[in-house]
Design brief:
binds protoporphyrin IX containing FE; two-stranded antiparallel ribbon; Immunoglobulin-like; 288 residues
Length: 288
């Protein structure tokens, strides 16, 4: 090993608290997710501002507590980073999971991730398993299928099922004139879902949904989704930014808890079947 490589090797070892990835040195925060204070929030996964934000290497465990359980570990780690502008917090989650999946269909699931925070801060946090009866949690959930829709994947059969052959389909023409019979027919396509308030299907303007839970089996949509997000495929998997308001009572300088979850669609993971973390200390920079 020539002198140069030896030097680089020792540099990497010496800077253990500063992880090397791809030659760039990044601060690692093994004990907590450190929320860096910044006037501008990085809202996309490839915003260069993330380079200076400490990485928390979160360990994930199978959800093997409540049926349907995940019996074998899949995505065992994710890298979490966070930035706040004092009102909102942006989380960047990066994880390796191949093959990626951004489709759903019969027995086909899309990849997803989620951030969970206590709905209210207190001396101790609610049960990390999606909260408890009197102490709910707030969850913001990102789906790769929604990201594909937001990134412009047409909501058509041929886009969703590339191998499907359709000779004529009333709901099919991508360029639907507003008010045209086809457009009205397309609208009807989601009418049942819309009538039931189900926002899981159809056109959407953001790849995330805000949810509330008071224990496993109680998950429900929040009154409205205020969070935003943006996800990008990486060579090894996904990098996703979720931006949401700082939880009630969490101000710069405060401490709280955060938990994460990841679903690998190609492994049949959906709903309860996922990899998840326990509570991780969340330390918000700034304050008096
Ligand atoms: C051991 C801990 C956990 C258990 C036992 C558990 C259990 C469950 C169960 C039973 C469901 C089915 C739906 C329902 O609740 O109504 C579910 C869905 C869900 N859970 Fe959890 N969960 C755990 C941890 C987490 C964590 C830490 C997060 C977020 C970071 C999370 C986010 C979600 C989401 C977003 C769904 C809906 C997914 C979908 O629609 O496909 N869970 N979980």
């Amino acid at each position: 090993m020539d002198r140069f490589r030896t030097g680089a090797f020792f540099l990497c070892v010496a800077g253990a608290a500063l992880a090397c990835s791809g030659g760039t040195r990044r601060a690692v925060s093994p004990a907590e997710v450190r929320v860096v204070k910044s006037a501008k929030l990085p809202v996309t996964p490839d915003d260069p501002a993330w380079a200076g934000v400490p990485v928390h290497p979160a360990q994930l465990l199978p959800q093997d507590v409540v049926e349907p359980r995940l019996l074998a570990p899949t995505t065992t780690a994710l890298e979490a980073q966070a930035v706040t502008d004092g009102t909102q917090v942006a989380f960047r989650l990066t994880w390796s999971a191949l093959p990626r999946s951004d489709r759903t269909g019969p027995a086909v699931f899309g990849d997803a991730c989620a951030v969970q925070l206590p709905a209210a801060t207190g001396l101790d946090a609610p049960n990390p398993m999606m909260g408890e009866a009197t102490r709910p949690v707030e969850i913001t959930y990102w789906r790769a299928t929604w990201q594909a829709t937001v990134d412009g994947r047409p909501d058509t059969l041929t886009a969703l099922y590339p191998n499907a052959k359709v000779d004529h389909y009333p709901f099919e023409s991508a360029s639907l004139m507003p008010g045209s019979p086809e457009q009205l027919a397309m609208a009807k396509r989601y009418a049942p879902a819309r009538a039931m308030g189900n926002t899981m299907a159809g056109p959407r303007d953001r790849p995330v949904q805000d949810l509330v839970a008071s224990g496993p089996g109680t998950l429900r949509p929040a009154d409205r989704t205020v969070s935003t997000g943006a996800g990008k495929a990486t060579e090894a998997g996904w990098s996703v930014v979720i931006v949401r308001p700082l939880p009630k009572g969490v101000k710069p300088g405060a401490r709280s808890q955060v938990a994460f979850a990841v679903w690998q669609g190609s492994k049949g993971e959906a709903g309860a079947r996922k990899m998840r973390s326990g509570w991780i200390p969340l330390a918000v920079e700034g304050g008096p």
